[in-house]
């Protein structure tokens, strides 16, 4: 499995990027702030910007994120009618709404994860960001794919042991995912 990660990093190093990483970072910050006040049309514009950036930078299949958006929106509409009647469904509705609103930002984060740490650090150095801050941001974006990989390993280990993740037992499922992460740190 480590060989796959190394080969992916080698492919990323050879890839020529269309955007400067700072452009994506500033888009991420700007869209995050503007989404607070955005209406539906502005949200869809930000979503299109996120998808275009995602497609151009990652060259990955768009079916998975697109299907996620469709499924989340399909879940939101029935919950919208039931949310005022039930506090539990109302809280689920609000969590899904926040997640769906932040999907353009998640797409930009995924696009930024495709850059190598040296590209990110050199971009920050060019605009004069303090080295400690640039290294911290670079380490954060470098660790995200590793964290995703570790979560998948923990899920596989739990599945082998016969433990199941359930949305009805949130505390136990969270514990099964997070405790092994602390042990690896």
Could you please describe the fold and organization of this structure?
This protein has 185 residues and is mostly helical. The chain has a domain at 16-115. It is built from nine helices and no strands. The longest helix is centred in the last third of the chain and has 30 residues, at 131-160. The mean pLDDT is 79.
What topology emerges from the helices and strands here?
Blueprint: H1 2-14, H2 21-35, H3 40-58, H4 63-82, H5 87-101, H6 103-112, H7 117-126, H8 131-160, H9 170-184
User: Beta-sheet strand percentage?
Assistant: under 5%
End-to-end distance? 19 Å
- What global shape is seen? globular
Uncertain runs: none
**Major sheet, described briefly?**
none
Give the oligomeric state of the chains in this entry, treating copies of one chain as homo and distinct chains as hetero. Answer: single chain
Structural class: mainly alpha
Number of strands: 0
Rg measurement, Å:
19 Å
Round the mean pLDDT to the nearest integer and report it.
Answer: 79
Question: Helical residue percent?
Answer: over 70%
- Give me the strand/helix succession: HHHHHHHHH
Total of helices: 9
At a glance:
By secondary structure, the protein is mainly α. 79% of the residues lie in helices and 0% in strands.
